[in-house]
Amino acid sequence: MALDALDTGFALRVGGRTILSHRADAPCFFVGRGEPHVHGALGHFDVTQDMIERRALAYAEIQGDVVRFAESHGAPWLLEAAVSDDDNNAAIALKALDPALNRLWLRVPAEAGEHVWGGGEQFSYFDLRGRHFPLWSSEPGNGRDPSSSLFRQVEAHRKGGGGSYAHTNYPQPTYVSSRRYALHVDSFAYAAFDFRNADFHEVEVWEIPARIELWARPRFTDLVSALSARFGRQPPLPEWLLKGAVIGLKDGDESFARLKAFEEAGVAVSGLWCEDWVGLRITSFGNRLFWDWQWNADRYPDLPARIAELRERGIRFLGYVNPYLAVDGPLYAEAAAQGLLVMRPDRDEPYVIDFGEFDCAHVDFTNPAAADWFADTIIGEKMIDFGLSGWMADFGEYLPVDVRLANGESGMTAHNRWPALWGEVNAKGIAGRGQTGEMMVFMRSGAAGVQGHCPMLWAGDQAVDFSRHDGIGTVICAALSAGMLGNAHHHSDCGGYTSLFDTVRDAELAMRWAEMSAFTSMIRTHEGNRPRQNVQYDDSPELLAHFAKMTRIYAHLAPYVRRLSREASETGLPVQRPLFLHFEDDPETYAIQTAYLLGPDLLVAPVVAAGKSEWTTYLPAGAEWVHVWSGKTYAGGGDATVAAPFGEPPVFYRAESPDAALFAGIPSA
Questions:
Q1: Could you tell me if residue 158 is inside a domain?
Q2: Interval 575-606: pLDDT, tens
Q3: Known catalytic residue: 298?
Q4: Catalytic residue among 202, 275, 276, 461
């Protein structure tokens, strides 16, 4: 047993290191009561509480593997913790001994120089140390830096829409420490990680969670594998995907002629993604989709024949779906008639909310009949049987908390759980057609356990710019943070998505984004929310030629990425990796979030700032690095500055890599 009694408390050791400690003057547990207040609009949430009490559990008494806590000796017992462990793992099962308690705080000792990663998918900061992170699924917002002009413009038009550095589509109460342990809170309630104190990390949970789980391993790769085993692993990437780019067009039947022009320009194409296959709805935000999940023959005449013709050319067709149904579509009426929708708490009618100039209801995935209906009727029949080979499984973050669910669960826990349920419905529909590992489904929302259902994350709705908290660079941070928690495959809308006010995509951004996307699990374009106002990859021969080169690089790396995806299915190691995952003896790598390893041997440092013709990146110690474009060799352990013209993103490979010949042969034209 790793639970050691001390004079006035205890220490919990996992893998030979002390993870938790308790003394009367420094308790590790606090409990209390609070009343939540949640206001939501268009996926943005204002979450506050009335704090009723917070009580320090200063007195602890150990009986075998059970610890009971009270405020003082002789006071009523308030919390019970049952510890189970083996050499490298431990779990603390918690039980409130006062049923009125609905808040828990846990303090974990911190060390000087410690780094912390995780928290789900984070966009602004990879290293979480020194900051506070509320964990609540939401739209990340646009203008996440309050000092930016975009934030001020968004807030003026939509209060709360500006977001903050901690807002994310995918929160998960799990973190990994540079002390080589990981901690997970087994709860979907609102939670917060506070890493601002020099002496301890504090975890806040708005319930008494079922369990606190702990892992300790000698190496970071082992920790990532342990977490992926806990939350689930993804199948290898479909073979067809690795042939080239998925071209995103929403131009109705004209999309097929435009795709042909991509091919004629030398673009390596694996798929055509038409999210508007369900029809369009024009709003003030831009072109939205008609949220009724079946073929819209007016916008895409003869689509079945078109899909068959694409297949003959080795190209797959992909679509779009989300977990909501527009009230003016026929599927809403069908689901309502069968009692498959989330209901109002105060009356017997579906809970309908505004999604931005149109109203929709949520399918209630806590109802097995509703989950089966969506999985079989929509995913199976209307999508897979129709001929789709994949889709964007969008949204999942909007569930209000004042809902009535079929299983009786509170909206306060169902809200954060919803993305995992949404992923499970997609996976069930795919498995029901025997297509697991063949469909390419990508999600932006997430929760603990989504890893076992979602084969690919995408980074959501980045701004079409180079801004620090909204633009291209946030994609790297997102991939690295999610990858630490077992999400092996990650990509982004190539060129960004969100165009607001005077923010529009230009050719420079489009090219830099394509250069980054070529070195990820999937390269997929998106026309954005305002296609006609933003540069598209087929706008000019020069831009299309640049994009074609990047797709050929992606296809060239297919043998390497294929092997990484198979490794991921077996070990959980992500395709895009933080530098320290393979260079943990080099502390300079621990906070880097502007470069990543593609597998163990290829270092990618995308240009994520405007107006640059050269770029500087850190090369980890312990290896010699070869610059792909010049062939020049650099010693690790310092910065390297290289020319970075368009078409030659800063990429290096390990000189001793067994794949050195493949990397040296990356197409230069």
A1: yes
A2: 999 999 999 999 999 999 999 999 999 999 99
A3: no
A4: 461
